[in-house]
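In response to the reviewer comment on reproducibility (Comment 2.3), we provide here a single inverse folding case reported in full, input and output, so that an independent group could reproduce the run without further information from us. The C-alpha cells appear first.
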C-alpha cells in the first residue's frame, strides 16, 4: 500500500490501513483540509469536482462530496470528466477551487485528489504545504445542520470545452473536415472514451475507431501513454490503414500520436509540432521543463521566438509561461498548455491544434515527424543509499563539470554543446532521475552512464 502526500495533491493505492493507503479516512481528512483552507481564503463557497473512469472513482466521489458539503461548501459535480475540463469549469463557475479525482497515468489501484485554486490552476507549493499542515493537525470545523452545503450535478461542460476548442482561432475546422482523416483512438478505459470521440466528431472527423472504449477503470494496458504500452494502437493503425493513432492518459491531460505507418510520433514531439504550428501564426516565446527535448528550442528559434526552460512540474511550467509571456508551452510527456485558453495541460486543445497543423501541411504524420530534428532522450534512475546528502553529490558533480553551462533551477542540468544531462531527485521516491539527450542514441546513453558513474563515486 502507498500514500504519497505531496504539495501538488494526495495520491495513494486504494485500501489498507489509514495513513498507509488512500483509505476512506484519508480521503475525508485531506478533503476536509483543502475545504477548510478554501473557507479561510474568502466567502466563496463553491467547489467544482470531476473524476476519471477509475474503479474507485465513485466511492471517492461520494466521500469528497459528503466532506465538502459537511464543511458548508457548495459542490458542482461534473461527474465523469477530464482534468482540463474541471480546470475550465472552476473559472467559468467563478468557484473558489476544484478537485479532480484522478491518479493520472498511475495503474488502476491508485487514485488521487488533484487540487485547484480559484483560477482553475494547480495550487502552489506554499499552498499545498498549508493544506498538508491542516490535515496533520486535523484542524477543521464542520458546519451545523442549517449551514450544510448544496450539491448539484452539471453535465454541460464537455460540450462547453469542445466549443472552446472549435472556437479557438488557430483550430482550422474546415481544413480538418476537408482532409477526411481516419483516426484510431486508445481511450484506455477512462473518460477519453467519452470526450475524444465527441471532439473528433465535432471537428468533422467521420472515421473514428476507439480501442478500450468501456469506461470501467479496468485499464487494458498500463495507462501511461508510452510506446511499450501502445502496441495495440500501433497495430490497429497499420491494420486499418488509418492516418493516425491518438492516445491519452486516464484524465486526458497528456496526448501522443502514432504515425500512419504505425511508428510512434513520440510524446516529446507532441508539443514540438503544436508549437511549430502556433508560432507560425503567433510570434512569441515558448516554455517546457528542463527534462524535455531541445527540439522545442530549435523550432522556437527557427520561428523567431525565445525558448525558456522551467523546473519540472506543471505548476512550474505555468509560472514560467506567465513570467515570459509564452504563447505556447507544456511538458515533454505530451502535455500541451495553451495560455489564452487556460493554464493547464489539455489534450483536447492539443488534438485541435495538431490536426489543424497536419491538415494545413497536407503531409502525412510520418513526413511531418521527419521534418523535425531527431533527438534521443535516455531516461535512467539511481536508487539512493539511506542518509545520502544529494546536495553534496550535486556540488561535487558541478565542480567536476565547472567549465560547462549549468542550470540549478531544478536539480542540476549540464549542457555539452548540442547535448545535455539533467539530474533531479524524485518528489515521490528515494531516487535521482538522470535524463540525457543527444542527436545520437548511444551518445545519450553514454552521457547518462558517465554521470551515473560520477554519482556512485561521490555517494561513497
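Designed residues, in position order:
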Amino acid at each position: 500500500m502507498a500514500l504519497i502526500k505531496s504539495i501538488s495533491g494526495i495520491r495513494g493505492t486504494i485500501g489498507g490501513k489509514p495513513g498507509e493507503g488512500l483509505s476512506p479516512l484519508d480521503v475525508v481528512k485531506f478533503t476536509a483540509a483543502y475545504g477548510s483552507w478554501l473557507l479561510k481564503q474568502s466567502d466563496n463557497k463553491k467547489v467544482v469536482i470531476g473524476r476519471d473512469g477509475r474503479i474507485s472513482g465513485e466511492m471517492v466521489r461520494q466521500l469528497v462530496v459528503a466532506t465538502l458539503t459537511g464543511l458548508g461548501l457548495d459542490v458542482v459535480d461534473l461527474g465523469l470528466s477530464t482534468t482540463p475540463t474541471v480546470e475550465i469549469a472552476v473559472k467559468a463557475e467563478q468557484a473558489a477551487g476544484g478537485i479532480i479525482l484522478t491518479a493520472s497515468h498511475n495503474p488502476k489501484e491508485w487514485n488521487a485528489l488533484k487540487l485547484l485554486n480559484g483560477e482553475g490552476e494547480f495550487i502552489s507549493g506554499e499552498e499545498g504545504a498549508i493544506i498538508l499542515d491542516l490535515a496533520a493537525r486535523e484542524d477543521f470545523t464542520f458546519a451545523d445542520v442549517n449551514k450544510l452545503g448544496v450539491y448539484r450535478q452539471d453535465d454541460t461542460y464537455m460540450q462547453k470545452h469542445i466549443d472552446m476548442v472549435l472556437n479557438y482561432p488557430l483550430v482550422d475546422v474546415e481544413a480538418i473536415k476537408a482532409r477526411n482523416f481516419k483516426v484510431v483512438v486508445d481511450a484506455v478505459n477512462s473518460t477519453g472514451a467519452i470526450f475524444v470521440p465527441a471532439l473528433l466528431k465535432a471537428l468533422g472527423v467521420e472515421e473514428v475507431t476507439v480501442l478500450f472504449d468501456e469506461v470501467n477503470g479496468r485499464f487494458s494496458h498500463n495507462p501511461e501513454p508510452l510506446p511499450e504500452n501502445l502496441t495495440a494502437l500501433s497495430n490497429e493503425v497499420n491494420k486499418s490503414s488509418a492516418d493516425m493513432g491518438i492516445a491519452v492518459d486516464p484524465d486526458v491531460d497528456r496526448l501522443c500520436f502514432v504515425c500512419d505507418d504505425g511508428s510512434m510520433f513520440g510524446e516529446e514531439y507532441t508539443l514540438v509540432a503544436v508549437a511549430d504550428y502556433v508560432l507560425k501564426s503567433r510570434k512569441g516565446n515558448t516554455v517546457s521543463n528542463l527534462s524535455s527535448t531541445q527540439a522545442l528550442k530549435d523550432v522556437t528559434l527557427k520561428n523567431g521566438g525565445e525558448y525558456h526552460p522551467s523546473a519540472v512540474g506543471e505548476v512550474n511550467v505555468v509560472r514560467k509561461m506567465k513570467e515570459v509571456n509564452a504563447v505556447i508551452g507544456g511538458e515533454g510527456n505530451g502535455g500541451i498548455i495553451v495560455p489564452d485558453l487556460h493554464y493547464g495541460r489539455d489534450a483536447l486543445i492539443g488534438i485541435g491544434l495538431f490536426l489543424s497543423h497536419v491538415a494545413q501541411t497536407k503531409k502525412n504524420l510520418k513526413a511531418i515527424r521527419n521534418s523535425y530534428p531527431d533527438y534521443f532522450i535516455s531516461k535512467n534512475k539511481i536508487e539512493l543509499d539511506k542518509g545520502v546528502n544529494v546536495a553534496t553529490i550535486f556540488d561535487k558533480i558541478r565542480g567536476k563539470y565547472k567549465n560547462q553551462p549549468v542550470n540549478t533551477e531544478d536539480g542540476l542540468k549540464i549542457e555539452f554543446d548540442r547535448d545535455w544531462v539533467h539530474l533531479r531527485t524524485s518528489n515521490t521516491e528515494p531516487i535521482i532521475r538522470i535524463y540525457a539527450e543527444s542527436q545520437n542514441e548511444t551518445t545519450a546513453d553514454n552521457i547518462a552512464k558517465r554521470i551515473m558513474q560520477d554519482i556512485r563515486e561521490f555517494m561513497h
